[in-house]
Specification:
The protein is mainly α. Strands 1-2 form a two-stranded antiparallel ribbon. Strand 1 and strand 2 form a beta hairpin. The longest helix has 38 residues.
Length: 326
C-alpha cells in the first residue's frame, strides 16, 4: 500500500514537473544576472516608461479635474485640430495607395499590393492605442487618490472623475494608434519589394509630396479646421470676454478662441508637415537600416572549405537595387 502510494506520488510528480523542465532556476548566478548591465538598462527603460505614464495620467487628471470652461477649451482645441489632422492623413494615405496601385496596374512597379495586410497593421495599432487608453483610465482613480494623499489634498482627488473616462481615454488612444498605424503601414506598404529603396521610401516620399500639395491647395489641417469652425463664427461673435466665452458650447468656444487669439489655436500646416515628415521619416530610417543589416548578414560569402569564398545564394547588389545586369 505504501509502495503504491509512493509510486503514485512519483508519477504525479513526473506529470506536474516533467523531466528536463528547467524553467525555474534558483542559484547564486541569479544575483549576477540581476546586477548585469542588461538588467540595469531594462530597469531604466521601465522606470522611464513608468514616469511617462505617470506624467500622462497627471496631465489627464489636471484637465479632467479643472473647471468646466478650461476642460471645454482644452477639448475643443485638441478635438478640432485632431479631426483635421486625421482627415488630412487619411486622405493622403488613400491617394498614395491608389497611386501605387495604378503604377502596379500599368506595370511600372512589378509587385503585389497587400491591402489586407496593410489594413491589419492599422487595425492592430488601433487596438494597441485602445488598450493603452483603457489601462490609463483604469489607473486614473488610483493615481488621483495617490496624488491627493501625497500632497494632503492640494493636488489630486477623484471628485471630477466619472465612468466617462472609460470611454474618452480609450477613444483618444484609438485615434493615436490609428495615426501611428498609418505611418507604419505606409512604410510597410511595399513589404514584398527586394529593392530596399522601393520597399521603404517610395510610399513615405509620395505621402510627403501629397501632404505638401494638399497644404498648398488649402487642404491642410489649418484650412480644414477653419472651414469646420467657419459656420460657428456667427455664434461666437462676442466680445473677447472670458466670462462670456466660458458660457459657450465647445464648438462656439473654439471659434471664439480662434477669433480672439488671431488663429493661434489652429495647428499650422507647416507644423503639421514637419511633424509628419519627422515621424514617417524616422520609422522609414529604422526599418531601412534593419533591412540593410539583415541583408548584410544573409549575403556574407560562405567559405568553400579551401580558404576561399563562394558565391552566396542571396541577392547581391542587383537584387537590392532592382537593377539587372546587362
Amino acid at each position: 500500500m505504501i509502495k503504491a502510494i509512493g509510486s503514485l506520488l512519483h508519477n504525479f510528480g513526473r506529470i506536474v514537473v516533467p523531466r528536463g523542465a528547467h524553467e525555474l532556476r534558483l542559484d547564486f548566478g541569479a544575483v549576477d544576472r540581476f546586477l548585469s548591465v542588461g538588467t540595469f538598462l531594462r530597469g531604466y527603460s521601465l522606470l522611464v516608461g513608468t514616469v511617462f505614464v505617470g506624467a500622462v495620467l497627471s496631465v489627464f487628471w489636471t484637465v479632467i479635474g479643472s473647471s468646466s470652461s478650461l476642460k471645454n477649451a482644452f477639448g475643443a482645441v485638441i478635438g478640432f485640430n485632431t479631426l483635421a489632422v486625421v482627415s488630412c492623413a487619411s486622405a493622403a494615405t488613400l491617394i498614395v495607395v491608389v497611386a501605387i496601385g495604378a503604377l502596379i496596374r500599368i506595370g511600372v512597379i512589378r509587385l503585389t499590393l497587400d491591402l489586407a495586410g496593410t489594413f491589419r497593421r492599422v487595425a492592430g495599432w488601433i487596438g494597441y492605442g485602445t488598450a493603452a487608453g483603457v489601462v490609463m483610465a483604469s489607473l486614473l482613480p488610483l493615481a488621483s487618490t495617490g496624488l491627493a494623499n501625497i500632497t494632503s489634498g492640494a493636488i489630486g482627488g477623484t471628485e471630477a472623475l466619472g465612468p466617462a473616462v472609460l470611454v474618452e481615454l480609450p477613444a483618444a488612444g484609438a485615434v493615436a494608434g490609428y495615426m501611428i498605424g498609418l505611418a507604419v503601414a505606409l512604410v510597410r506598404l511595399l513589404e514584398s519589394a527586394r529593392n530596399l529603396l522601393l520597399r521603404r521610401w517610395l510610399a513615405p516620399s509620395l505621402f510627403s509630396v501629397v501632404l505638401a500639395v494638399m497644404s498648398h491647395w488649402n487642404l491642410g489641417p489649418q484650412s480644414l479646421a477653419q472651414s469646420i469652425t467657419e459656420p460657428l463664427f456667427d455664434a461666437a461673435a462676442v466680445d473677447c470676454d472670458e466670462k462670456v466665452i466660458e458660457g459657450l458650447d465647445q464648438g462656439s468656444m473654439f471659434a471664439a478662441l480662434a477669433r480672439c487669439g488671431d488663429g493661434a489655436v489652429y495647428l499650422s500646416d507647416a507644423g503639421f508637415l514637419w511633424i509628419a515628415f519627422i515621424v514617417v521619416g524616422l520609422i522609414a530610417i529604422v526599418m531601412f537600416v534593419a533591412d540593410v543589416l539583415a541583408t548584410t548578414r544573409t549575403s556574407r560569402p560562405v567559405s568553400d572549405g579551401k580558404g576561399g569564398p563562394t558565391e552566396s545564394n542571396e541577392p547581391g547588389v542587383e537584387g537590392m537595387t532592382g537593377i539587372e545586369p546587362a
